From TrEMBL, chain A:
Biological role: Part of a membrane-bound complex that couples electron transfer with translocation of ions across the membrane.
Protein localization: Cell membrane
Entry similarity comment: Belongs to the NqrB/RnfD family.
Matching PANTHER family: ELECTRON TRANSPORT COMPLEX PROTEIN RNFD (PTHR30578), ION-TRANSLOCATING OXIDOREDUCTASE COMPLEX SUBUNIT D (PTHR30578:SF0)
Higher taxonomy: Bacteria, Pseudomonadati, Spirochaetota, Spirochaetia, Spirochaetales
Entry membrane topology: Multi-pass membrane protein
Native organism: Sphaerochaeta halotolerans
The protein's assembly and partners: The complex is composed of six subunits: RnfA, RnfB, RnfC, RnfD, RnfE and RnfG.
Residue spans crossing the bilayer: 21-40, 46-64, 95-113, 125-144, 210-234, 241-261, 267-289, 301-319, 325-345
Keyword Plastid: no
EC number: 7.-.-.-
Cofactor dependency: FMN
GO CC terms in record: plasma membrane
Name of the gene encoding the protein in the UniProt record: rnfD
UniProt protein name: Ion-translocating oxidoreductase complex subunit D
Signal peptide: none
UniProtKB/TrEMBL annotation, chain B:
Cofactor list: [4Fe-4S] cluster
Family: Belongs to the 4Fe4S bacterial-type ferredoxin family. RnfC subfamily.
Residues forming coiled coils: none
SUPFAM superfamilies: alpha-helical ferredoxin, Nqo1 FMN-binding domain-like
Protein name (database record): Ion-translocating oxidoreductase complex subunit C
Keyword annotations from UniProtKB, A to Z: 4Fe-4S, Cell membrane, Electron transport, Iron, Iron-sulfur, Membrane, Metal-binding, Repeat, Translocase, Transport
Annotated gene: rsxC
A GO BP entry: electron transport chain
Length: 364, 436
């Protein structure tokens, strides 16, 4: 018998198929519907923004990889960060903004803390928050989506529906819920949404936010497209339900109970559905809060983390002064992640209540 | 619909890959030209050699004597002469002395008389189990007589027989259940008598429906008070902690034994060995081993004497059909890879696998994805332990329940960063113990 060359290694000798790169590229794939929708409704300009942010992220990763002699370009995480940065930009931003955001994301948020796996903050969100607070005006001027272009006056298109209603409420327009407030201001709805609204009784504005016919960041407008991506990730078992479901539900329930207070509608006056569909919540809950590195490791910890995100998002949305609820809440909870991982640990097998009681008795 | 039982926490679902050898009936290996019978084929202290170089031995004769409380006797599988006593390294890296035995041309036939075990009492049965050198044959090789000696203050209500065989590839227990089911179940009744268990339950995973049916038939025919339970497939269900959770919904606390929750668990192959030991008066000197994997020309389930060299098993199965990357003793999840085909098999060798080249992955940094935490059947945090151990914080790791890790491999199996988690746990345990 010929002698084969044998490998000796520790068990296990079988391995599940997934690896870091396949996960990262799958998440990017899951973001494709939402990015494609963004490019469709906001036009070529948004493609340029995405391109700049992705290329900058890749270039930064490449340079840092050269510097540290760690070749991590093809694990897909830099591409994903760049894509998320671009999706979090208004389609009309000057191109130096996505450039700076990606540089900040990769250099400062990711590599300064040790690269993949060691960063405490979600790099894409850190990049976005950095440019948002540095260049607030261009970052919060938006354009009308193609589907509403003729009907949406520039004055309304330049802001997201969330910031419009916020401005109106703080300006003293009380007594309306989110969608009726916007329709009273003349915010248009697509024909499709109006037809669906007649059929379901849900307001046409809520349906438009669900479909993605509103002004907003490139990747955040269509809740539907993001949900499709999210379902894909759930089916591929790349994410679990714990963070997105808990996050969305906690924000929605808090918004429904208390969200009506600032606009004078009292308790239980907030809107449940439109709070989920509007703003960056869907993008944040499915793709940003679920970032492995910056979210807790155990399912129990993830639920606590998502509850925190939900609470802060609700708080900042209805009582804060900036239209920057989702990204700041997630970053805030990122800070708590190490603490959650330290104190919320799974119940060890065999550590049952009966056993604990017995041990206590034995000690006494 | 009735819920199919399984354990609740963690676990993984590797392909079962039993197709290679599942339909191959047990075949007896032709007598090898030389056997290497190791003195440490069990958990605990190695046996003390009773023979010297040049001595002749009889088939079934005791050649090594248990040398401590947790230890076991070793018997000669053949009649022959001892060529030498030399140091060997077993597949699991244990080094010990071994007899090199050259078998005689003519071997005595197996005795045909049978013993009526019903007339013996528990302690008599237990002492013959000890004399016959029975150990757990699932892989852990814990001496059976120690496991079945129930302390006065403990009470056992259930005896659980492990017919799960959750490791991929392996089919030895499967074939034993199909071909020697009567013997194995009678062996289970013997154990039930020794440990005074009221219930006897056999757990079998649902990928072996023919075994479940076959065992149920035997139970009906013989009127044994044995329950046969089908379990949902999940690795590591064959671990006694997971098995008891699945069947009795009892959790064994950290550092405790099945005894502490009123149960005894034993492998179906061990039950068969106990039947042979008690009824046929045959000491444990041969066992069924699955020789399988993509690279074996004719995968088989082989009844081979303990001490058979892996090369003899490979030759019997037609050698390699393609060049293997790894040879593994045991299953692919917890088995040991080894490089020397002259390595002998032991009482605990349930499989000899020849696996082909697998896709190579590069390790990346830990992503904190939590898959290891979700997969750990005892709900540890492997990623955290990995960090502590790689940073040299062994004490921290020990305080984070490192010692509860049983190296089942679920964490490393799912890790997308392809970190050597099990390897690190093993290292951490060794160094952590040393530091203490």
């Amino acid at each position: 018998m010929n002698k084969p060359t044998l490998t000796v290694s520790s068990s296990p000798h079988l391995h599940a198929k997934a690896d870091t790169a396949s996960i990262m590229w799958s998440v990017s794939l899951a973001l494709a519907p939402a990015s494609l929708w963004g490019v469709y409704v906001f036009g070529f300009r948004s493609l340029l923004v995405l391109g700049v942010s992705i290329l900058t992220a890749l270039l930064s990763e490449y340079l840092l990889g050269k510097l540290y002699k760690e070749y991590t370009l093809w694990d897909g995480s830099a591409f994903l960060t760049g894509l998320l940065v671009g999706m979090n930009m208004s389609p009309s931003v000057p191109l130096f903004i996505p450039f700076l955001a990606s540089v900040f994301a990769i250099f400062v948020a990711k590599w300064v803390f040790g690269g993949l796996g060691a960063n405490w903050a979600n790099p894409a969100l850190a990049g976005r928050v950095f440019v948002f607070f540095s260049f607030t005006t261009p970052m919060s001027s938006y354009v009308a989506p193609r589907t509403l272009a003729s009907a949406l006056p520039d004055a309304l298109a330049s802001a997201t529906p969330l910031s419009l209603s916020k401005t109106a409420v703080s300006g003293g327009t009380l007594g309306f819920d989110g969608s009726s407030l916007l329709s009273s201001m003349g915010y248009p709805a697509t024909d499709l949404a109006q037809n669906l609204s007649a059929m379901t009784g849900i307001s046409a504005f809520t349906i438009d936010t669900f479909l993605g016919n509103v002004a907003g960041c490139i990747g955040e407008v269509s809740a539907l497209a993001l949900l499709i991506g999210g379902l894909y990730l759930l089916a591929r078992k790349i994410i679990t339900w714990h963070i997105p479901v808990t996050y969305l539900l906690s924000t929605a329930i808090l918004s429904w109970i208390f969200g009506g207070i600032p606009s004078g509608l009292g308790m239980f006056g907030g809107s449940f559905l439109s709070s989920i569909f509007s703003g960056g919540l869907m993008l944040g809950a499915i793709f940003m809060a679920t970032d492995y590195v910056t979210s807790p490791i155990s399912h129990k910890g993830q639920i606590v983390f998502a509850l925190g995100c939900g609470f802060f998002t609700f708080l900042f949305r209805y009582f804060g002064s900036m239209p920057e609820a989702v990204s700041v809440s997630i970053l805030l909870m990122n800070i708590f992640t190490p603490m959650i991982d330290r104190y919320i640990i799974p119940r060890k097998f065999g550590d049952t209540r009966a056993f604990r009681k017995k041990q206590k008795e034995a000690r006494a | 619909m009735q819920r199919i039982p399984t354990f609740s926490k963690g676990g993984v679902h590797p392909d079962d890959r039993k197709v290679y050898s599942r339909s191959a009936a047990i075949e007896r290996l032709p007598m090898p030209s030389e056997l290497i019978v190791a003195l440490s084929q069990h958990l605990g202290a190695p046996a003390k050699a009773l023979k010297a170089k040049g001595d002749t031995v009889m088939k079934g004769e005791k050649i090594g004597e248990a040398s401590g409380f947790i230890s076991s006797d070793v018997h000669s599988p053949v009649s022959g002469s001892i060529k030498e006593i030399r140091k060997v390294t077993l597949a699991n890296s244990v080094q010990c002395d071994a007899f090199v035995i050259v078998p005689d041309e003519v071997q005595p036939a197996d005795p045909e008389e049978t013993v009526d075990w019903q007339s013996l009492d528990g302690s008599e049965l237990l002492s013959s189990i000890k004399d016959m050198g029975i150990v757990g044959m699932g892989g852990a090789t814990f001496p059976a007589h120690v496991k079945f000696s129930i302390p006065k203050d403990k009470k056992v209500d259930s005896f659980v027989v492990n017919g799960v065989e959750c490791e991929p590839y392996l089919t030895a227990d499967y074939r034993i259940m199909l071909e020697k089911g009567e013997q194995a179940l009678e062996g289970a009744m013997i154990v039930a008598k020794i440990v005074k268990a009221e219930r006897v339950i056999v757990g079998v995973e649902m990928n072996k429906p023919d075994c479940i049916d076959h065992l149920k038939e035997i139970v009906k025919e013989k009127g044994y008070p044995i329950e046969i339970v089908g379990l949902k497939m999940k690795y590591p269900q064959g671990d006694e902690k997971q098995l008891l959770k699945a069947i009795l919904n009892r959790e064994i606390p950290s550092g405790k034994l099945p005894l502490d929750v009123g149960a005894v668990v034993s492998n179906i192959g061990t039950c068969n060995a106990i039947y042979e030991a008690i009824v046929l008066k045959k000491s444990l000197y041969e066992r069924v081993i699955s020789v399988t994997g993509e690279c074996i020309a004719n995968p088989k389930n082989v009844l081979a004497p303990v001490g058979t060299k892996m090369s003899d098993l490979l030759d019997f199965c037609g050698g390699f059909s393609k060049e293997p990357e790894k040879l593994i003793s045991g299953g692919p999840m917890m088995g040991f890879s080894f490089f020397d085909t002259e390595t002998p098999m032991t009482k605990g060798s349930s499989g000899l696998l020849a696996l082909g080249a697998q896709k190579k992955y590069r390790s990346t940094a830990c992503l904190n994805c939590g898959r290891c935490v979700a997969a750990c059947p005892i709900a540890l945090m492997p990623a955290k332990l990995y960090r502590y151990i790689s940073n040299g914080e062994y004490e921290e790791a020990m305080n984070t329940s490192l010692m509860d890790c049983k190296e089942c491999g679920c964490c490393a199996y799912v890790c997308p960063a392809h970190l050597p988690l099990v390897h690190t746990m093993k290292t951490g345990k060794k160094l952590g113990r040393k530091k203490k």
